[in-house]
Amino acid sequence: MNSVIYLLLRRLRWPLITLIVVYAISITGFVLIPGMDDKGQPWQMGFFHAFYFVSFMGSTIGFGEIPYAFTDAQRYWAMLTIYVTVIAWLYGIGTMLAILQDQAFSRMRARQRFRNAVKAIQEPFYLICGYGVTGSLLVNKLASRGIQAVVVDINQQRIDDLLTDTLPMAVPALCADACEPDILTDAGLLKQHCIGVVALTNSDEVNLAVAIASKLLATRTPVISRAESQAINDNLASFGTEHIVNPFESFAEYLAMAIHSPYKHLVYDWLVNPRHRPAKIGAHQVQGTWVICGYGRMGQALHRYLGAHQVDMVVIDEDPAKFGMMDDMVLGLGTEAVTLQEARIAQAVGVVAGTASDANNLSILMTARMLNPELITVARQNQRYNERVFQAACPDYVMEPAWIIANKIMLLIKTPLLLDFLRQMGGQSDAWAQQLIERMREVVDDQELDSWSLTIDQQEAPAIMTALTDRQSVPLGVLQVDPRQRLDALKAFPLMIKRSNGLVLLPTTDTLLQEGDVILFCGRYRASALMQWTAGNYNVLRYVRDGFDGASGYVWRWLSKSYRERRKMSHEIK
Amino acid sequence: MNREKVVFAFFIVLALTLNFGFVLGEIHNANHHNAFELFAAIVVSLIATVLKFGDRTHIGAVLLATSLVADLQLLLAAGVWAYADYVSLDGLTENVVASVVSLSAGALLANLTSVILLMVETVMIRR
User: Which residues numbered 61-80 in B keep a CB inside 8 Å of some CB on A?
Assistant: First the structure.
């Protein structure tokens, strides 16, 4: 039995016992008190009639004196017991209503409902702790891809938001402290369907607690955690948290890439962000001095990443304690023209407005642009509700931690191969990336560039496996052809093949497939469904590869085989 | 001393003794079986059941089950008796008395099980 019913029964013990005792006394009284029948003869009420009378008397229905009119003694007893039974009923019903309205009880019921909802999930799901801006973005993205999520947040307001958000699927949510391992267990941490835990709460400590509990309780479940401080970052890494996402580090890395290799940055951006940047941006002049306003966590991360690529920087910060931490530092906020001029904004190529205040960041942006209209502008957006103002200010890059983390986590969730690909890209030249961007643009134009992976195995590509075990050769090109009309190409192309003996970047169409290959594709999401058709249906595969529909049934296959043999024999006779 | 245990054991044992008292006698002789005793047995058995509500232990769950069985049997017996007395045209025949008594004898077994479980629990605690 579940705990909600236990609690209800436990609290109802006394009301129920009171009711039983009151009824027992009333009934006994009626049975003992002598009565009189309609002919004036002495008559004793039986238990049957007594129970009947007390039942409708207690519930104040009152059918009258049954079966015979009462004597005065009976009326006297009825008068007493009617009040006692009514009070007993009110006590019972009142207690019941009080329990139903009780906060603790409704919390318990919510938890019970949540537990049952999680138990009913029969597909892979992610356990997401924290439904703030990042969490809601991530859950939205997951749901739109048909991936189930389970949400735990400590704030009831956010859980209510989740219930009113129009998601394409039902997402179980609970208002509770994710630090408690019991809550994580209720949220399905130990279930085999749980394919990952994502800790996205505002507090690094909570994320740490979630990560460590998940690592200890469900050793094999990957954990993705957000961390804003370096200490927590190292702590998370120390016990094997699979992925740690630091918004400041991620953005600094992203921006540094944009400066030193703009096309590689574009490839990354197209693969990671659904709303990618136009391709022409790669041609911008970005080499030169950068002015960084605000030397907090973001400023420091930027300084480190840009410094690694020998980019000249001038840092502006109002905190004198930080002054002199590096050679080129100006004391001030950056919102006034004087400070920016002191930082030689006129000669700079870009400005980063990276303070913790949105108003200051916008002010820096406007002032800097007035002093040097050619500047590349980067703004940090701290609050989500300022989105409209930041759009109006149209900086070249907006650093919004929520988006960055959500995109990065989606990247990890979509396919781990993408991460391998991006790592491989690091070793390539920017010209290589420029060619790649051209290909991507041909395929998707301004629409979302999606990426997915296909494994050549019995489950994902049974048709290709059949062909391979038949010792037929299957080139990679078959997967790039529209299975409905082989002369049309699908709007997708392979980025990489992962084989037992290594990775093949941008494989050509005549690459022969092998069992166990994992292929990373990019393109329109619709193409992936068509591709699965070729991979899964042997007849379609043969049409795509050979150009005609082969015999599919046993009879026809036998007929065509014997026909071929006869033709061969007649050839030999000639 | 745990007062809850005292109260519960009291009701469990009382349910058994009342039940036994009712069953005792010739099975078909209505004079040997008192309606008051059956009524008391039902009331005490119901209270014993309610007392077990909300006990999460395994033995608590089994005790709840046996009490529920006793309640069911006793209520059935009372129902049969009332039906024969007031609804049926034949009245309280020997057959009916026999079935009322045998139904409550079933409840007696259930109550006995409850008491045995109670004793087992008590013996296991050793304090």
Answer: 61, 78
Same domain, A393 and A456: no
State whether residue A44 sits within 8 Å of chain B by CB.
no
* Residue A20 contacts B where some CB pair is shorter than 8 Å: yes
Closest-CA distance, B96 to chain A, in angstroms, reads: 16
Two structure tokens written together for A528: 């992936």
In a domain, A422, yes or no: no
CA neighbor of A257 nearest in space, from A240, A231, A293, A281: A281
Tokens of A564: 């071929």
What the block records as the tokens of A500 is 């037992």
Which tokens go with B23? 């069953």
Nearest in space to A274 (alpha carbons), one of A381, A145, A396, A147: A145
Query: How many distinct structural domains can be found in chain A?
Result: 4
CB-nearest to B54 from A6, A21, A49 is A6
> Per residue of chain A (574 residues), what is the pLDDT tens digit?
467 777 788 888 889 999 999 999 999 999 999 988 888 899 988 888 999 999 998 888 888 888 888 988 899 899 899 999 999 999 999 998 998 888 888 888 888 889 999 999 998 899 999 988 888 888 988 888 788 999 999 988 888 888 887 788 888 999 988 888 899 999 999 988 898 999 998 888 899 999 999 989 988 888 999 888 888 888 888 888 888 888 888 888 888 887 778 888 888 888 877 666 666 665 666 678 888 888 888 888 888 888 888 888 888 888 777 666 666 778 887 788 888 888 888 888 888 888 888 898 889 888 888 888 888 888 888 887 888 888 888 888 888 877 778 888 888 887 778 888 888 888 888 888 888 888 888 888 778 788 888 888 888 888 888 888 888 888 888 888 888 878 888 888 898 998 888 888 888 888 888 888 899 988 888 888 888 888 888 777 878 887 766 555 666 666 677 777 777 777 766 5
Pairing, β A329-331 against β A450-455: unpaired
Range of the domain at A31: 3-101
Give A296's Cβ-side CA count (13 Å radius).
15
- Does residue B51 belong to the interface with chain A, where contact is any CB pair within 8 Å? yes
Of A10, A28, A47, the CB nearest to B54: A10
Contacts of B40 in chain A (CB under 8 A): 24
Residue in A with minimal Cα distance to B79? A48
ipTM of the complex as predicted: 0.73
- The amino acid occupying position A186 is D
For chain B, give every domain's residue range. Answer: 3-125
